[in-house]
Write a structure and sequence with these properties.
The structure is a single chain. The chain has 136 residues and is mainly alpha-helical. It contains 7 helices and 2 strands. 44% of the residues lie in helices and 10% in strands. It has a two-stranded antiparallel ribbon.
């Protein structure tokens, strides 16, 4: 487990896994090599030579320059941009999108299995992380 805020690219590319959190919400958890393709799939594209760590912070902070301008019908840009008058924040929208992914469901399932194993051993009755990840 390693926590780094905005690492330089040479450090970032050494990460096996990446967890992005904002306002207590999980926005991504999985292999770091899959993070950029995931964000591209939901309408955000990292410009060439941009540090991925900076790119992720731009997205989380609602920097609209990270939004990929394309004609894809599969991506609902209104659902992910932090526009004025929107009921949800960018973080809430990103968390909702992530919670609908197979990666999230797989992670949640693994955490639930781990929690049950720990309960059976009498060591831990509940996991705050499991409760947190289950919150949509």
């Amino acid at each position: 487990l390693f926590r780094s805020h905005q690492p330089r690219y040479s450090i970032f590319k050494l990460f096996d896994g990446l967890t992005l959190l904002a306002s207590g919400r999980m926005l991504y958890h999985g292999p770091s090599k899959n993070a950029l393709p995931y964000f591209t799939s939901i309408g955000y594209e990292c410009e060439a030579y941009n540090n991925p760590a900076d790119f992720f912070l731009d997205i989380i902070n609602g920097d609209s320059t990270a939004v990929a301008y394309n004609d894809s019908e599969d991506i609902d840009l209104d659902a992910i941009e932090g526009r004025q008058g929107s009921d949800k924040t960018v973080v809430e929208k990103l968390a909702t999108l992530y919670h609908s992914t197979a990666l999230f469901q797989e992670t949640k399932g693994e955490l639930e299995k781990l929690s049950l194993q720990l309960e059976a051993g009498g060591k831990v009755k509940t996991s705050i992380f499991t409760r947190q990840i289950g919150r949509a």
